[in-house]
């Protein structure tokens, strides 16, 4: 990804953090670096492998930066 992930995360609202993931809500309509549409949430995977239990059907865009996986959700 050619994205400043620190700057991206600074623009988002932190939501949840545990040993496996850190999640952020996009409350200001930042564009997804993969598809350029606003995304709903950013999930940063902190462990490899990481399992996600998604409660709803979502479109996902995925990127990797500095060894961490970034998942952008679109509802």
Task: Describe it.
The protein contains one helix and five strands; from the N terminus they run αβββββ. It has one helix spanning 5-10; strands spanning 13-17, 21-25, 41-45, 59-65, 68-74. Strand 4 and strand 5 (68-74) form a beta hairpin. The chain has one domain. The protein has a five-stranded antiparallel beta sheet. It is globular and about 25 Å long. The protein is mainly β.
Which helices and strands, and how do they pair?
Layout: H1 5-10, E1 13-17, E2 21-25, E3 41-45, E4 59-65, E5 68-74
Antiparallel strand pairs: 1-2, 2-3, 3-5, 4-5
Quickly describe the structure.
This protein is mostly beta strands. The protein has one helix spanning 5-10, and strands at 13-17, 21-25, 41-45, 59-65, 68-74.
Shape: globular
State Rg: 11 Å
Low confidence ranges: none
> What is the helix content?
under 10%
| Strand line-up across the major sheet | 1-2-3-5-4
Structural class: mainly beta
- Integer count of domains: 1
Count of β-strands: 5
**SSE pattern:** HEEEEE
* Euclidean distance between termini CA atoms: 22 Å
Largest sheet: 5 strands, antiparallel
């Amino acid at each position: 990804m050619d994205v400043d992930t620190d700057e991206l995360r600074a623009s988002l609202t932190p939501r949840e953090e545990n040993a496996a993931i850190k999640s952020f809500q996009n409350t200001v309509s930042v564009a997804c670096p993969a598809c350029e549409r606003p995304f709903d949430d950013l999930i940063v995977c902190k462990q490899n492998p990481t399992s996600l239990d998604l409660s709803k059907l979502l479109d996902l865009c995925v990127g990797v930066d500095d060894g961490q996986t970034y998942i952008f959700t679109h509802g």
